Amino acid sequence: MPLPLFPLLTPIIIAIICIYAAAIWKNTRKANKSKTEEKVISKPWVDDDLKDGTEFNIQQQASKQLDEEITAQHIPYSPKHYSEEEMMRRAKKFYELMNKRRSVRFFSDEPVPREVIDYVIRTAGTSPSGAHTEPWTFVVVQEPEMKRQVREIIEEEEEINYKKRMGQTWVQDIQKMRTNWTKEYLEIAPYLILIFKQVYGNLPSGKKIHYYNEISVSISCGILLAALQNVGLVTVTTTPLNCGPRLRALLERPVNEKLLLLLPVGLPAKNVTVPDFHRKPLTDIMVLV
Ligand SMILES: Cc1cc2nc3c(=O)[nH]c(=O)nc-3n(C[C@H](O)[C@H](O)[C@H](O)COP(=O)(O)O)c2cc1C
């Protein structure tokens, strides 16, 4: 006598339903988990305006740029060769100079020759850059009315950053700097240097890819800081969060330029103080393999 089919299938159907239910439950958990992770890793200090909005035919441009690189003529290059003692002397001397660099938030209004600033920026422009694209623009503001307008924008946005956008931890972390959203130095320092990264270049033939533009501009800023230190000028590296679009409009910069850093530049105020910070020793920052 044949076995009744329905009772035989029932456990199989139940098993299939259970497997489906388990799979749905697992997926829902996974989705909820990634939502929570997204919340946990929210980074209010990351400026939306700095995101790379490069939208053009990357393939086409890349081969054009490579062609340019390949066709560049090569010329002799002979950098200075120092003796070991001289190398050591220079290494120490430069370290000692740079180790004296500190971020200064109080400035004197004493004038500084413009030609000095020109050379400092020329020096920043010697930086290496991805595929030699030189994706930087240094806007030097010296006009008092323009400095006032820059200050107004920054203070308005910074007040919101402090009170709403950034968390309590951030506010606590920067307390040791004794700084807040009021930034008198933006009008007192003789110069403000606003550094823009060009996320792409504009050529008569179209847009040009700026590879690694943020890394390239950051390296040039490091060189700029060293050049300022070399001439005895002071600054504080600042990242005016959420001010990019308004400052870009104020300074009439094109949309491919995104504000990366702002450096007030000048001489320090009399009797200026800085936080008593200590730098990590070599053993903590260098790994020899
Ligand atoms: C990427 C970056 C962003 C910074 N942003 C600010 C800022 O917005 N405001 C500020 O007062 N200092 C800012 N600083 C300066 C740091 O607080 C300072 O470099 C740090 O406290 C170490 O002190 P020192 O520069 O005197 O060695 C910034 C520094 C860096 C590198």
From TrEMBL:
Pfam families: Nitroreductase (PF00881). GO terms for cellular component: plasma membrane. One of its GO terms (biological process) is tyrosine metabolic process. Keywords: Flavoprotein, FMN, Membrane, Oxidoreductase, Transmembrane, Transmembrane helix. Its EC number is 1.21.1.1. The keyword Transmembrane applies. Residues 100-266 form the Nitroreductase domain. It catalyses: 3-iodo-L-tyrosine + iodide + NADP(+) = 3,5-diiodo-L-tyrosine + NADPH + H(+); iodide + L-tyrosine + NADP(+) = 3-iodo-L-tyrosine + NADPH; bromide + L-tyrosine + NADP(+) = 3-bromo-L-tyrosine + NADPH; L-tyrosine + chloride + NADP(+) = 3-chloro-L-tyrosine + NADPH. The keyword Transmembrane applies. This is iodotyrosine deiodinase.
